[in-house]
């Protein structure tokens, strides 16, 4: 329905008012909340229930607490009770409220007052105390005792419900807000325009219309029945309002799926039918006018207003929690980067082991300390002594030890303890060599540790979406699917979102899930509502995972053989598709052949698949594998060639990553390109993989070879001439040609890929 201009004016005015409220400073917000508590207290103070009891004003005061909101609420309740009920009748609730607030204020520093049960207990006891005084004066009939007991119970439980309704994150806050709204409708029921139209019943009718629109017939009927009973109790119209609002909510809920106009029309017709049956006179006219006014007000707001009121959608409420964990992961990634920088920072040293003269300084400190020629050698003739040491350094450095003949003849004749000095220099020279070897090992370990911290940070950035486009919720689509499933398969809950690749995910759960999958054409219906072609890999799962169908579909072929025909093979080939709609092809070729090569390549391919399925970027995955292989090579040489191709089946964007792998061949647009890299095998050097970016389309094809199969000739020409449906045969032909040219001296693997436009959707396809 196209909204009339007044809707836009009202919406703009509401947004401006909300913006002004949001821009208020803290004192302004506190003052606004105080005025609100005063107004609500004033309305609830005017409400008198059957039996002459008024416990809800005291319950609201106790729920607001002591300072400062409780004071405003207590003042409002006392003013409302005296002005609405009269001085005589209003004195009783006013006295109860005064005692309740006094107890909360005077005992606010008492430790027991911080317990959750204190406020409801104080409301019940103070209300009961004043009621007992009035009971002593008015009589002690059974009805009086029942009213007194009911007043105490309502004061205590009312405080619990009001406190939950006033809190944003309290348990049962939705029920508390509903009770607060119902009691306010009851309090406003006596307020009438022209003596006919009740403000309380107008608000109640609007709430029934909203509940029917958002929750359907059951929600509308239940809301109307509960509100009607309360309005009947407040207005002295037994059963009339309950019947009118209940019938209106039930009939209006049946048109909820078709739009607000049919919801409003159904509620008006249901209300009119019940009113003409059960009411007469002024009451009949009032109910008819009130529902008409409420239906007009119901049509004014935009649909977004009602979407914001919806509370069925659990996934949308988790956005804050996801943002929290995303922020924590980002901080952790930054911490790992800082830790890597700390490891890279080299400490300042007082002396450098790179200077070979340090061995002579240490030896002189140990041997020449008590020599009578010390001042001469290391003082007056220091330059001559240093020249003799430099002349000897070249000879002993190559040998690894010092001998007397290394020093000049004049130094040997002058030195009084040449044997001791030579032995000390030899010992220090060995220590120097050990220190240098240790430093090199520490530097290598420090570099590996730095790379590991960098890999951890990159993994966390990939998981949080910091290095790309993060996932986002599809709130409107979730609402649309929820409205459809409410009637199509009741009890089915849904959540829709798009991942970092932009692919739509729809998750279905709840008691109605199995009934949904038994309906013929259920997947087509959900695709129609979501305006996206959906597929379901596992219709029998506990939680149905539906995915947007990719515009490209892939066919993968593989041919492999072992060295000399003996298993196990050192080559491993894997292909899989991630939940984001990205196809991955992996060929890992272990060093040599046999059991060890097979274990290395199998472990590397399996780890790469797990990390890629978890959403880690391919380059980060390969760098992590390279670091792990470098660490493993300290005990046993462990290297392998890795070939990884990622194909985005939505956009055709393709990346080929290589670590010492043989050339691959790609056909696109009638042209064949050889894709090769220069990076050595993984586990041999601290370098990143080669990355070649391509753009593939329907009709494209690719061939990935291990080192053993790379002996085949004319692979590119064969790929160019290969028909779209015979790529698997091409893999076998390439393998046969490679074996004929090089024998069975190495493990051989050939992986082929062909891309075509998606055709008819197979049953159960992912």
Strand-helix topology:
Elements: H1 5-22, H2 26-45, H3 56-64, H4 69-85, H5 87-106, H6 118-138, H7 142-166, H8 173-188, E1 192-193, E2 197-198, H9 199-235, H10 240-253, H11 260-278, H12 281-299, H13 303-309, H14 314-317, H15 319-344, H16 358-367, H17 374-380, H18 382-399, H19 409-414, H20 418-464, E3 472-473, H21 475-488, E4 492-498, E5 504-510, H22 513-517, H23 522-530, E6 534-535, E7 544-548, E8 552-561, E9 571-577, E10 582-590, H24 595-613, H25 618-632, E11 640-648, E12 653-659, E13 664-668, E14 671-675, E15 690-695, E16 701-705, H26 715-721, H27 727-742, E17 748-757
Antiparallel strand pairs: 1-2, 3-4, 4-5, 5-7, 6-7, 8-17, 9-10, 10-11, 11-12, 12-15, 13-14, 13-16, 16-17
Helix pairs in contact: 2-3, 2-4, 2-8, 3-4, 3-5, 3-6, 3-7, 4-5, 5-6, 6-7, 7-8, 8-9, 9-10, 9-11, 9-12, 10-11, 11-12, 15-20, 16-20, 17-18, 20-25, 24-25
Description:
With 766 residues, the chain is α+β, with helices and mostly antiparallel strands. The protein folds into four domains: 148 residues; 117 residues; 77 residues; 206 residues, PPM-type phosphatase domain (Phosphatase 2c, domain 1, 4-Layer Sandwich). The chain is 58% helix and 13% strand. The chain contains 27 helices and 17 strands. A five-stranded antiparallel β-sheet has the order 3-4-5-7-6. Strands 8-17-16-13-14 form a five-stranded antiparallel β-sheet. Strand 11 and strand 12 form a beta hairpin. The protein is flat.
């Amino acid at each position: 329905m196209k909204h009339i201009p007044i809707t836009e004016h009202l919406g703009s005015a509401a947004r401006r008012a909300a913006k002004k409220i949001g821009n208020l400073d803290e004192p302004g917000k506190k003052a606004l909340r105080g005025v609100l508590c005063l107004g609500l207290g004033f309305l609830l103070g005017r409400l008198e229930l059957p039996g002459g009891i008024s416990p809800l004003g005291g319950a609201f005061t106790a729920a607001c607490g002591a300072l400062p909101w409780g004071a405003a609420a207590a003042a409002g309740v006392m003013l409302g009770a005296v002005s609405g009920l009269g001085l005589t009748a209003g004195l009783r609730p006013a006295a109860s409220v005064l005692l309740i607030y006094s107890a909360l204020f005077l005992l606010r520093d008492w430790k027991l007052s911080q317990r959750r049960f204190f406020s409801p207990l104080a409301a019940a006891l103070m209300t009961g105390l004043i009621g007992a005084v009035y009971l002593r004066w008015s009589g002690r009939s059974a009805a009086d005792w029942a009213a007194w007991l009911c007043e105490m119970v309502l004061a205590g439980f009312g405080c619990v419900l009001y406190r939950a309704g006033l809190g944003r994150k309290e348990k049962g806050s939705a029920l508390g807000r509903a009770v607060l709204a119902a009691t306010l409708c009851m309090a406003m029921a006596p307020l009438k325009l022209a003596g006919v139209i009740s403000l309380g019943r107008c608000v109640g009718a609007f709430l029934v219309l909203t509940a029917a629109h958002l929750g359907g017939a059951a929600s509308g009927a239940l809301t109307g029945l509960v509100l009607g009973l309360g309005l009947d109790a407040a207005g002295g119209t037994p059963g009339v309002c309950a019947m009118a609002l209940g019938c209106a909510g039930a009939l209006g809920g049946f048109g909820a799926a078709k739009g607000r106009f049919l919801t409003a029309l159904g509620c008006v017709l249901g209300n009119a039918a019940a009113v003409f049956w059960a009411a007469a006179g002024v009451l009949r006219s009032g109910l008819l006018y009130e529902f008409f006014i409420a239906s007009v007000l119901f049509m004014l707001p935009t649909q977004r207003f009602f979407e914001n009121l919806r509370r069925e959608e659990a996934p949308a409420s988790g956005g804050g929690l996801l943002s929290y964990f995303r922020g924590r992961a980002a901080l952790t990634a930054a911490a790992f980067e800082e830790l890597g920088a700390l490891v890279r920072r080299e400490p300042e040293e007082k002396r450098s082991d790179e200077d070979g003269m340090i061995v002579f300084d240490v030896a002189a400190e140990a041997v020449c300390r008590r020599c009578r020629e010390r001042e001469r050698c290391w003082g007056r003739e220091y330059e001559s002594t240093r020249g003799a040491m430099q002349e000897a350094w070249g000879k002993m450095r190559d040998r690894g030890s010092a001998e007397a003949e290394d020093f000049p003849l004049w130094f040997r004749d002058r030195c009084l303890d040449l044997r001791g000095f030579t032995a000390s220099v030899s010992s220090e020279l060995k220590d120097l060599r050990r220190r240098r070897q240790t430093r090199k090992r520490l530097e290598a370990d420090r570099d590996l540790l730095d790379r590991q911290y960098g890999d951890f940070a990159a993994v966390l950035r990939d998981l949080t979406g910091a290095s790309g486009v993060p996932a986002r919720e599809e709130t409107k689509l979730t609402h649309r699917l929820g409205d459809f499933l409410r009637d199509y398969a009741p009890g089915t809950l849904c959540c829709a979102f798009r991942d970092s690749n932009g692919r739509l995910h729809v998750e279905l759960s709840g008691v109605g899930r199995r009934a949904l999958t038994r309906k013929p054409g259920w997947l087509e219906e959900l695709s129609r509502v979501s305006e996206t072609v959906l597929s379901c890999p596992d219709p029998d799962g506990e939680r149905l995972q539906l995915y947007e169908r990719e515009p490209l579909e892939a066919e993968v072929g593989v041919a492999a053989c072992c060295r000399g025909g003996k298993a196990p093979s050192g080559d491993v080939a894997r292909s899989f598709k991630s939940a984001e709609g990205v196809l991955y092809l992996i060929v890992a070729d272990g060093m040599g052949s046999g059991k060890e090569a097979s274990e290395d390549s199998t472990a590397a391919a399996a780890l790469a698949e797990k990390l890629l399925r978890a959403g880690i970027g391919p380059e980060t995955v390969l760098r992590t594998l390279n670091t792990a292989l470098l660490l493993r090579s300290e005990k046993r040489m462990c290297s392998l060639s890795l070939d990884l191709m990622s194909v985005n089946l939505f956009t055709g964007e393709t990346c080929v990553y290589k670590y010492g792998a043989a050339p691959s061949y790609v056909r696109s647009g009638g042209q064949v390109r050889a894709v090769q890299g220069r990076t050595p095998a993984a586990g041999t050097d601290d370098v990143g993989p080669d990355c070649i970016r391509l753009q593939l389309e329907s009709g494209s094809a690719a061939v990935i070879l291990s080192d053993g199969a790379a002996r085949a000739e004319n692979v590119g020409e064969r790929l160019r001439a290969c028909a779209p449906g015979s790529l698997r045969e091409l893999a076998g032909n390439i393998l046969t040609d490679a074996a004929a040219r090089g024998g069975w001296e190495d493990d051989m693997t050939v992986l082929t890929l062909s891309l075509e436009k998606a055709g008819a959707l197979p049953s159960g396809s992912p």
